[in-house]
């Protein structure tokens, strides 16, 4: 006797299937499909790893032997040549694969269909995903329309240099030089920019370090205090304006930088900022931000107010990447690897493919 399936997830219908099959003959051999089979044929990731599924089924008294299928069911049938091949009734409706029917006919294996499944694993998984996506969308909607913007006046001198910042984390040039380390040189070597725009530049520390390297650099920030605190060498190149609205500098930027800004914005502001960033760059866009630490759904959103009370939005990394891609920006994982030398996983790099009109 042989039963066969993915059994992912294993449910009450499978147990009834095994119980009835065991009354039809002995011993009962269970052929379990692999994780690769589920990925290639079901077009979804497995819920339970193959070893867990095997161990669960092996613990059942009705099952005599468990086999992990690494080839094909027809190959197993050909080698085992059981007296009976027992499948669920859903297979009678859609028909067994031709190769399995041919093997059964060749070796005289009787095919039986049992109507024991309360529901199929495929339906259970589909309903779970549908409900999960629905719940995720509702949660996303709730956050989207309840978020409140952080007003620009919050980012005053105390925000940038106050004693609330633990350790070496203020925005003085001395501290930022330590934090930046080799970032400025890395930017010059990886992107070789002629003219840079730093969006959400804060007090202009990175602008100053790039200025020291001979790179023409401009900045934009929605905080007047940020400009006032900036080094005099770059202060005149900083514009105080919303980062969610396009400011016409009248010049092209072959590198646009946006670091540690997006987490300070609402989701709707991020959407606008993404469009603006895409419009600013003529070639590369280099972004860093804090992402959702453990997303399950593409729409998962959280915050990080413990680190900073203005960190109101941590998106799924793939969701943010998608927003940029929809603006005609192609991901450059090769450059991301070079820029993420600290291995924090917070870097995104894009290259313009076409200019939106």
TrEMBL record:
- The superkingdom of the source organism is Bacteria
Which taxonomic lineage does the organism of this UniProt entry have? Bacteria, Pseudomonadati, Thermodesulfobacteriota, Thermodesulfobacteria, Thermodesulfobacteriales
Pfam families with a match to the protein in the record: CTP_transf_like, Methyltransf_23
User: What's the protein here called?
Assistant: Methyltransferase domain-containing protein
Enumerate the InterPro entries for this protein. Answer: Archaeal_FAD_synthase (IPR050385), Cyt_trans-like (IPR004821), Rossmann-like_a/b/a_fold (IPR014729), SAM-dependent_MTases_sf (IPR029063)
Q: Which organism is it from?
A: Thermosulfuriphilus ammonigenes
Per the UniProt entry, what is one GO biological process? methylation
Q: A Gene Ontology molecular-function term?
A: methyltransferase activity
Key words of the record: Methyltransferase, Nucleotidyltransferase, Transferase
